[in-house]
Amino acid sequence: MRKPMVAGNWKMNKTSAQGVLFVQELSQSILPYEHVEKVICPPYLAIPAISALLKDQPIGVGVQDVYSAPSGAFTGEVSVDMVKEFCQYVIIGHSERRALFGETDKGVNQKVQAALAGGLTTIICAGETLAENEAGQTQAVVSRQVTQALIGVESSSMAKVVIAYEPVWAIGTGKAASAEGANRVIKECIRDIVAGLYNPSVADELRILYGGSVNGANAEEFFSQKDIDGALVGGASLKTPDFTAIVAAASRRN
Ligand code: PGA
Fold first, then answer.
1. Atom of ligand 1 nearest to the CA of 235
2. What is the average pLDDT across 38-57?
3. Cα 10 to averaged position of ligand 1 atoms, centre (Å)
4. pTM of the predicted protein model
5. Which residue's CA is the closest to the ligand 1 atom numbered 6?
6. Quick one: three-class SS letters along the chain?
């Protein structure tokens, strides 16, 4: 039985002070849903204060990216060791990192390896662009991103891996994928690929999230699908009622 997960990616929103105020309210609202693994990923500078606030609460804190090298002359970057002081989770390979900041499959793989070596639960994002979708390349793109991200990852580390299928055309557009369509990609291009790379039991235990315009109204439909174990949420993670409705929907998944 895979524990449902709902992770909020705040992206570049909220100052530290705003984040603290928000989490004081949000945590009260989502804490009752014990059956769901709840994670928030604020911007770096808000993390120390928020992780202190959540110290004794079952709400995980994650970063939205991390660099693969342990330390050194990498201006502007943050290492796994720095993250570990405050966080248990990391998002790697988000499509905004890939599209806007030149992240490659190889770079994603290096970050995944570093994050897992540091013991962080690693949420790896994969998803096709609109052009790739329209050209019928969804399967090829998602399978490739997943396969490349997992190069060198031992099956013993796979319990710390979560994969998020996020079609780029559905992110921040209000135009979510259909639940059946998302489930098909997740099954065929992620779970079956992982079964081939490792074995069926690793694939069976792997949590796979859907992301892209998930909200309180459509979450239930995604979570009714067999292979969708939760959501990676952008816009709706910035509002307590919306994020709570998504967590509540995940708690009804069984
Ligand atoms: P969205 O973003 O929920 O605002 O579409 C999802 C994501 O980027 O993870």
1. 4
2. 98
3. 9
4. 0.98
5. 234
6. CCCCEEEEECCCCCCHHHHHHHHHHHHHHHCCCCCCEEEEECCHHHHHHHHHHCCCCCCEEEECCCCCCCCCCCCCCCCHHHHHCCCCEEEECCHHHHHHCCCCHHHHHHHHHHHHHCCCEEEEEECCCHHHHHCCCHHHHHHHHHHHHCCCCCHHHHHHEEEEECCHHHCCCCCCCCHHHHHHHHHHHHHHHHHHHCCHHHHHHCEEEEECCCCCCCHHHHHCCCCCCEEEECHHHHCHHHHHHHHHHHHCCC
